[in-house]
Amino acid sequence: MRGTVGRMDAVVVWDESYLGYNLGEHHPLNPRRLDLTMRLAGELGLLTDVSVLRPPEATSAQLTRVHESGYVEAVRAGRRSVGLRGLGTVDNPVFDGMHEAAALIAGGSLAAARAILDGASRAINIGGGLHHAMPGHAAGFCVYNDCAVAIAWLLDHGVERIAYLDVDVHHGDGVQTAFYDDPRVLTVSVHQHPATLWPGTGRPEELGTGAAEGTSVNLALPPGTGDAGWRRAFEAVVPAALAAFRPQLLVTQCGADTHREDPLADLRLTVDGHRALYRRLRELAETYAEGRWLALGGGGYALARVVPRSWTHLIATVLDRDLAPGTGVPGEWVRYATPFAGGDALPATLSDGVDPGYQPWDGTVDTPVDHALLATRRAVFPLLGLDADDRRD
User: Fold this and answer.
1) What pTM was estimated for this model as a whole?
2) How confident is the model at residue 391 (pLDDT cuts 50, 70, 90)?
3) 202 alpha-carbon distance from chain centroid
4) Residue 227: left (phi > 0), alpha (psi -120 to 50), or beta?
5) How far apart are CA 272 and CA 254, in angstroms?
6) What whole-number distance in Å separates Cα of residue 292 and Cα of residue 257?
7) How many CB atoms lie within 10 A of CB 176?
8) pLDDT value at residue 390
9) Is residue 200 a contact partner of residue 237, using CB atoms and an 8 Å limit?
């Protein structure tokens, strides 16, 4: 289904060709997670009467707004570039059609950005969120940084202040790098502490440089942090930073790899916690970003049990078609997804059966999460004109 962009509430960007971004049969970033998500969302009726846009490939000019031209040429060269610029590694193996597949995902995030400037209040591209790609090399399963490409395009087309909020378990290092000296972009990353997880960056002291000092916000959480601790830290940092920056548009990278079943990391969130977070992101966009919200996918390696349920909630939230946690998983979807579940039973509902409530931070510093959030507040709040120790923000 393909829609025409006009005045509308929200659009979805999707094409089955996204599955061509395939790093290999045994690679953790399995494109089937996208297929499973869209099938689940479709079977639950979320995509009925919704504008679904097919993405174009990003052009060389759009890609080189963020990436070095020599790197784009190396990606185009494919297997001739093995061993160069981060290509041909275990994380980023070279595959046939790599440039086209990666450019299509970047084009999807560009299409979502364009839809918002054309009048949509929100847009979602679950194939996007490849936030580790650097200007001159591939990294962390990411060839082109669609997040940064879309943000750069928005800046070039009149948006003056953009907030990028990354809730993937890994630090949003590539996007931070792209805009580390650009005061028009606030990058906020909430992630597992870099001393315990790749890529090893994202400490509170990484603040931006020059005129952009204070526009990089890093909230690094200890392994084992669950729904309550994650939300406690998030609420103590993120809304105040957004209020101080006053963005005109919110871009979010919504990796699902913070989940307790994710095999590559050590946070302990649930699908219920993800649902509550996505609803909060929507509120933040309405409150601080003129209602304009560009949502992207990201990491997530619990292929069948977690990612489709989490991102189905994300799609529902973007579309204002919220699903109750106890919503049943359709039997047809279970039959389709079972071969991809590795022998694990698939959940019967869109819930992990957890109450994702939390206790707001009251200024006490009794837990590792409290120490983490206070470290971020003390590092960056003064640069944003905020009092790190004042709970009235």
Assistant:
1) 0.97
2) confident
3) 15
4) alpha
5) 14
6) 25
7) 25
8) 77
9) no
Q: Which residues contact 42 (CB under 8 A, 6 or more apart)?
A: none
pLDDT tier, 9 (very low <50, low <70, confident <90, very high otherwise) = confident
| Pairwise CA distance, residues 361 & 318, whole Å | 28
Q: How crowded is residue 50: how many other Cβ atoms within 10 Å of its Cβ? A: 20
**How many degrees, rounded to 5, is the angle at CA 137 between CA 198 and CA 213?**
70
Cα separation, 262 vs 269, whole angstroms: 10
Q: Indicate which residues carry an active-site annotation.
A: 132
DSSP secondary structure of 308-374 = HHHHHHHHHHHTT----TTPBPPHHHHHHHGGGTTTPPPPSBS--S-----PPP-S---SHHHHHHH
Q: Which residues, 6+ apart, have CB-to-CB distance to 301 below 8 Å?
A: 28, 29, 30, 257, 262, 263, 264, 307
The 3-class SS string of 205-225 reads: CCCCCHHHCCCEEEEEECCCC
Residue spans of alpha helices (H) in 168-301: 173-178, 227-245, 271-288
Tell me if 249 sits within 8 A of 291, measured CB to CB.
no
Which residue type is seen at 254?
C
- Beta pairing partners, 259: 269
- Residue 4 pLDDT > 50, yes or no? no
Closest by CA to 22, choosing from 97, 110, 107, is 97
pLDDT in tens, 81-106: 999 999 999 999 999 999 999 999 99
Confidence band, pLDDT 50/70/90 cuts, at residue 392: low
How many Å apart are CA 39 and CA 343, to the nearest integer? 20
For residue 9, what are the contacts with CB-CB under 8 A and spacing of at least 6?
120, 121, 122, 319, 320
CA distance 113 to 77: 28
d(CA 301, CA 305): 10
Region 345-356: mean pLDDT is 98
327 C-beta neighbours (distance < 10 Å), count: 16
Residue 203 confidence (pLDDT) above 90 = yes
